[in-house]
Each structure stands twice: as structure tokens, then as C-alpha cells.
Automatic annotation (TrEMBL):
TM spans (from-to): 33-54, 75-98, 110-128
SUPFAM superfamilies: Nucleotide cyclase
Pfam families (UniProt xref): Guanylate_cyc
Domain named Guanylate cyclase: residues: 157-286
Source organism, top-level taxon: Bacteria
Protein name, per record: Adenylate cyclase
Keyword Transmembrane assigned: yes
Lineage: Bacteria, Pseudomonadati, Bacteroidota, Flavobacteriia, Flavobacteriales
Cross-referenced PROSITE patterns: GUANYLATE_CYCLASE_2
GO process annotations (BP): cyclic nucleotide biosynthetic process; intracellular signal transduction
Key words of the record: Membrane, Transmembrane, Transmembrane helix
Keyword Membrane: yes
Length: 338
């Protein structure tokens, strides 16, 4: 809004062919900027509350079209209400006689220009939000800066999280109901991962690949805690899953970390791609869960970096030769200390 004030009023008083209204002409540019910034702060707070309410209380399963329509109407009515209140406040503070009576916004041209500006600015913010959701938290800025235009080595942790008995569930539910089941499963996963600084690298069928920068994954044992937090979340939602699908989803996961390469790939559809033994090993560890009747497996090298305290109990499975590997690695199962 400060930028709009700059576009709209800066230098107008010095242009001879333009005469500003007497009650506005006496205001300095600083005062005009101040009032518009106050308006912007008020609108920003209001919009944040609206966004929070939609994220918290409205269904994320609502289609994009209806969601946009409802939010647009809410924003419009909220904006008019804020401007009506602020116009009265600014009139009292500055001595400007601005009409803010019933229907005032229908004939106020400055307000019309302001609303158009807000609409365009909102589109820009919406595109930024979509891009952020597409690339994941923290990656969008790096993509803009071209951080991964050239392959770069990073130390990361990966978790391959897979739905158990997915084939049997798909046969039981049918492809439509199963697709809705997977949607709900991943929606619930998205409720949990932000609390543990995890990034969702990709979804592959009934599998999700989570990733952390090494320090964030190790800190507070986030890479382990997210698994059990998701378990608890699914249990809380058990009644919903039973009522709708007749079962509660169960899942397994494999964890490993280390150095690998990350690079931006593609031109028509850009993505970040990770290359290296770490991601392959994490996937192979997850595949061992069924063989050992375990829900969570982790490599010894990563486990040694974690402080699990007394909350979680690691148990060694010894050295395992993973599929496609030439050397065995030590693998542990982790269970919650109940």
C-alpha cells in the first residue's frame, strides 16, 4: 500500500496541470504514505486472519474454484469494511472531510483504483504461494536465485514412507475410493511434516519421500519423531478412516542420510532432482521393512547422529545386504518406548 501511495501521489503537487483537492493538498507525502501504510498493515492482518481461518477450519479438500470464489467474496467484504473504518479514522486525524457513509465505496474513484491494485497484488502473491507449494518450503527462493542451475553437493536425510498392504486395499476399495483414500492419507501427512522441518520431495503412487537438510533432520531427532507423530495423528483420525473406508492406514519407512548431488532439471517442467547413493539406500532400507516385520528402519550411520533419549528404542538387525548393493550395512529398527 505504501508502494501504491508512491505511484498515485508522488510528485502530483509539482505538476502544474494537476490540481489536488484542497483538503488533500495540504498533506505531505510522508503523511499520505503513513496513512496508506496503516491501511496496508490493517489489511495484511485481516487477510492473514482470513487465510488462517480457511486453512484451519475449512476443508482443504474443497475444489479450487469454489475456494477461490468464497475467499474472493470474503476479501472484498473485509476490504470494504476496513476502508470504511480507516477512512473515518483518517478523516478525524487529518481534518479531511472524506465521505464514508452508506455506499460511499461505489463512487470513490481512488478506492476503485486501490481495489484494482490490491487485486493485481493479490494475484502476484497467489502465484508466489502456488510456486512455494510446488517447490516446497525453502526451495522456491533457491530456485529463483538459480542455486541449483549447476549440480551442488548437499548433506541431506531422506525418508521413504510407504503405505502398507496397498495392493489389498486397492482391491478392496476400488480405484476411485482408493484414490480418495490416498488423498486423505497424504493430506494428513501434510498436517504433520511442517512441525518437524521436513520437506516433501515427491509422491510416487502410495509412497511419499520426505527430506531434511542434515542439521534440521538430526536436530531434536526430527527425522524419527515425524514418523511417530504421523502414527499418532492417524490414530486420532481412526474413526474417520473406519467410517469412510472400513480400515485405518498403516505405513512403513526407511531412513538414511549423507552427501549427494542436487540439481535443477527440465525446462518445460522444472524440478529438483537428487542423485546419489543416499537416496537409493534409503529406498532399499524401506523395502526391508516387510522382511523384518518392522515399521521404521534406519541406517546405523544416521542413528549414531541422533539423540533419541529414552523415548525411542533402537534394536539392531545386524548387517544387511540391500537389494542392488555390493556391501552390507548395519540397520536398526526403532520403536516408541510406551
Amino acid at each position: 500500500m505504501g508502494l501504491f501511495a508512491l505511484f498515485r501521489f508522488y510528485g502530483l503537487t509539482h505538476i502544474e496541470s494537476i490540481r489536488m483537492a484542497d483538503d488533500i493538498a495540504h498533506l505531505s507525502m510522508g503523511e499520505i504514505m503513513g496513512y496508506y501504510i496503516l491501511t496496508g498493515l490493517s489489511l495484511g492482518l485481516l487477510y492473514a486472519l482470513v487465510e488462517f481461518a480457511f486453512e484451519k477450519y475449512s476443508s482443504k479438500r474443497l475444489a479450487i474454484g469454489p475456494s477461490i470464489a468464497i475467499r474472493t467474496i470474503t476479501y472484498f467484504l473485509s476490504t470494504i469494511a476496513v476502508f470504511t473504518l480507516l477512512v473515518g479514522l483518517i478523516s478525524d486525524l487529518s481534518g479531511i472531510n472524506i465521505d464514508n457513509g452508506k455506499g460511499w465505496w461505489l463512487k470513490n474513484r481512488i478506492l476503485h483504483a486501490t481495489l484494482l491494485y490490491i487485486f493485481i497484488a493479490s494475484l502476484v502473491f497467489s502465484f508466489l504461494k502456488i510456486a512455494r507449494e510446488k517447490f516446497g518450503r525453502g526451495l522456491f527462493i533457491k530456485m529463483l536465485l538459480g542455486t541449483y542451475k549447476k549440480p551442488k553437493e548437499e548433506k541431506r536425510i531422506f525418508m521413504f514412507l510407504d503405505l502398507k498392504d496397498s495392493t489389498a486395499i486397492a482391491e478392496k476399495l476400488g480405484h476411485l475410493k482408493y484414490s480418495q483414500f490416498i488423498q486423505d492419507f497424504f493430506y494428513d501427512l501434510n498436517e504433520v511434516v511442517p512441525r518437524f522441518d521436513a520437506e516433501i520431495y515427491q509422491y510416487v503412487g502410495d509412497e511419499a519421500v520426505l527430506s531434511w537438510s542434515y542439521n534440521k533432520g538430526v536436530a531434536k531427532a526430527n527425522c524419527v519423531k515425524v514418523f511417530f507423530a504421523f502414527e499418532h495423528h492417524i490414530k486420532k483420525r481412526g474413526a474417520y478412516y473406519r467410517e469412510r473406508y472400513g480400515l485405518i492406514p498403516r505405513f512403513k519407512a526407511g531412513l538414511h542420510g549423507g552427501f549427494l548431488m542436487v540439481a535443477e532439471v527440465g525446462s518445460v517442467k522444472k524440478e529438483l532432482a537428487y542423485h546419489g547413493d543416499v537416496i537409493n539406500t534409503a529406498a532399499r532400507i524401506q523395502e526391508e521393512c516387510n522382511n523384518h516385520k518392522a515399521s521404521l528402519l534406519i541406517s546405523e550411520t544416521l542413528l549414531n547422529e541422533l539423540d533419541l533419549g529414552s523415548t525411542y528404542l533402537p534394536t539392531s538387525l545386524g548387517s544387511i545386504l540391500l537389494k542392488g548393493k555390493h556391501s552390507e550395512i548395519n540397520v536398526y529398527t526403532i520403536e516408541e518406548n510406551r
